[in-house]
Amino acid sequence: MDIEILVEGIGHAEGPVVLPDGRCTFCEGYEGRLGVWSPSGGRGVYAKLGGAPNGAVLGADGCVYVANNGGAIGPYRSSDFGPGSIQKVWPNGTVETVVSSVAGHPLNMPNDLVFAADGRLYFTDPGIWDAEARPDDGYVYAVSPDGAVEVIASVGKAYPNGIAAEPDGSMVWVESYTRRVRRWHPNGDIEEVHQFADERHVPDGLAIAENGDLYIATLSSGGFHILSPDGSRVELVDLGGTTLSNCVFEGGDLFLTDLGSQAGVTQEAVFFGRLLRCRPGVTGMAMFRGVIGA
Fold first, then answer.
1. CA 114, CA 174: separation in Å to the nearest integer?
2. Residues sharing a CB contact under 8 Å with residue 222, sequence separation 6 or more, in sequence order
3. Contact 211, 245 (CB under 8 A)
4. Which of 9, 13, 171, 204 has its CA at a distance of 20 to 30 angstroms from the CA of residue 52?
5. Can you give the pLDDT at residue 198?
């Protein structure tokens, strides 16, 4: 599969979002900002956020909603480390915080987010990435348009990561510690869709194709996986050694963020991440759009 490199030298690339005008924003975790790529102008800065943005999604109001973990990426800590939050970035670069706590308790380290068919914004909060020393309990939350927050799943020390919304109201997320893909149904039932057997195939982010297949960015697999909706069919698409963190469809294009050729994260803020684009031969499912706050 042909891969197009759009941007190089990103400090922990995550969360691509394609804007209506064809530009693509991406999270720059080490810089605490949203970068942007333009077909005509190349790389630029969309907004300065602080902390460490980790996931993003476009809202119906034209704003980019961001899961900001507060400034931690593995052992790395940003100079302005703070509480995790869900941020709303207006097209003019203005940033506001729309969620910072649940029932009076601060969020831990939000990771990824998506709007669903019911108009709510769903996000994962896995805690810090530290499977050996202090794995945190992970949660999946739903935010109503008025800002009210509900816990929809408590998943234990599993590191819930990328999340996507299906047309019937179900939510699919991946868990990086357990290497599981799980689905939450609107009635509250949770099913296990798949578990990657290879310890190198750590799921990080995902997107859904129009036919329902799950496209999953997997760390250290060298590419991405395609799963049938029920998890029975699994295919690895080898991209030649990528360390993919997330992906998003825009029509027949699949935009991917790549942490770089060196797997894992070090204490130093290394800048070898990339924004990539490929055409997998399928069309992406149309994403839901919502609004949180006035």
1. 13
2. 236, 238, 239, 240, 241, 242
3. no
4. 171
5. 95
